[in-house]
Amino acid sequence: MSDIFIHRQWANLEKLLRHAIERSRFQKKRLEAIKLHSLQDFLEKAPLTRKADLVADQATHGPYGENRTEPDEGYIRFCQTSGTTARPLSIWDTAPDWEWLLENWVEGYRLAGVTPGMVAFYAFSFGPFLGFWTAFEAGLRMGLRCIPGGGLGTAARLHAVLEHRVEVLCCTPTYALHLVAFARREGIDLQRSAVRKILVAGEPGGSLTAVRQQLEEAWNGAEVLDHYGMTEVGPVAFAASGKPSTLRVLEERYLAEIIHPELDTPVQEGESGELVLTPLGRSGWPLFRYRTGDLVLPKRTADGLLLEGGILARIDDMVIVRGVNLYPSAVDDVVRSVPEVEEYRVSLFTKSGLAEVSLEVESDGALGVSSKLEAAFERAFSLRIPVREVALGTLPRFELKAKRWVRAHG
C-alpha cells in the first residue's frame, strides 16, 4: 500500500476511534487507556474483538449491549446474525451507516459487471439478515430492476426468473444448485433463461471451481461470482467479472488484517490465516479488529488485497481425519465434481477415539455414484470415506446457509 493510502486509512480510523471512545461504553472500556498515534500503533496495541465479546455484552446489557454511539431514536434499521454458532447478535444501524453499507454493495455490483437497468431477482426469504436487505436496496440505488423472491416457493421463483427475463440472480450457492435440480426434475429448460450473472454468498461455494462450473453450465453460461460479508461488519469483498476465483477486499472501506489463528500475529506472504476486519464507515455500531473466524489466503496485487480461493473455511470447522485436515469447503468441492450428486450430508462420528466421516448422497438416478465419489475422495485426500446413496428427497434442502455436517454415533 502507498503511504498516501495508509495515511488516508489512519485518518478515517482515528476519527472513528475518537467517536467510539467518546460515545460507546463498550469501546471506551477497551480502548480509552491505550495511546494510539498511528496505524501501526493500532495494529500492535488495539485488542482483538471476538464474537463472544459482543454476545457477552448483549447478554449483560440486553437486549442491544453497550456498543452503540447514538440514542435509540438515532437508529433506523435492525438486523440480526443467524445464530448458527452462538446466541444471535441484534444490531441497529443509523441512516448514514446504512447508506455506507449500501455503497459497499453498489461497488460489488460494479465489480461484477452489473449495470443499471438489468433485471435482478433475489431468491431468498429476507428475514432479519443484513446481506439480503443490503443487496436488494443497493440494487434499487444503482438503478437495477429488482424483483424480491421472499415468500415464494421454488417453482414460483423459477417461473419468475424465466418470465421476467431475469439477468442477475442473487442467492446462496446451495439454493442455486437446488434450482437447477428442481428444474431438471420438472423438465424446465434453464438454457432459455436470460440470467447472465449469478451472485452468491453465505457459503464458500461461489469460489469453488466445481460448484461454479456446475452452475455456469446449467444456467447457460451465466457468470458465477462470489461475495463475502457478515452482519457484524457488512459487505466486505466481491469477485470481479472475469476473475471468479478471488475476492477483492474493499480496502477504502475496511482495514483488513490476516493473522495466525493461534499466535495472533500477522502471517507471512503466501500463508493462510484468519481474516480480521475493522469497518471504517459504521460509526453507530463500531468494531475494531474483529475476528471473523474465516480462513483466507491473501495476495496483494495492483488491484489491492485479494483473497485467493475466496473464504477457504471457518477455522473452527476443520476436522482431522486419520491425520488429514478436512474443511467443509474442500469436501464440497469434491462432491460437486461429481455432477450426478443432487444433495448430500456428512456424518461426523468417533471410532476408537478418532474422528471419522461418512456421506449420504442423493443422485439423479445414475449408477455408480457412490463408488465414483469414493474414488474422488481418495484422489483428493488419500482417504477412504464411505458413501451411501439414499432415496431422492431424503435429505434436507437449504435456502440459507447449508447445514450438511451433523454429528452421529459411530
What does this 3D model show about the protein?
- This protein has 410 residues and is an alpha/beta fold.
- The chain folds into 2 domains: 1-313, ANL, N-terminal domain (Rossmann fold); 318-407, GMP Synthetase, Chain A, domain 3 (2-Layer Sandwich), CATH 3.30.300.30.
- The chain is 31% helix and 28% strand.
- The longest helix has 21 residues, at 3-23.
- The protein is globular and about 65 Å long.
- The mean pLDDT is 92.
CATH superfamily of the largest domain: ANL, N-terminal domain
Average residue pLDDT:
92
Q: Return the structural class.
A: alpha/beta
The CATH topology of the largest domain turns out to be: Rossmann fold
List key phrases describing it.
single chain, nine-stranded mixed beta sheet, globular, 410 residues, four-stranded antiparallel beta sheet, alpha/beta, 11 helices, 31% helix
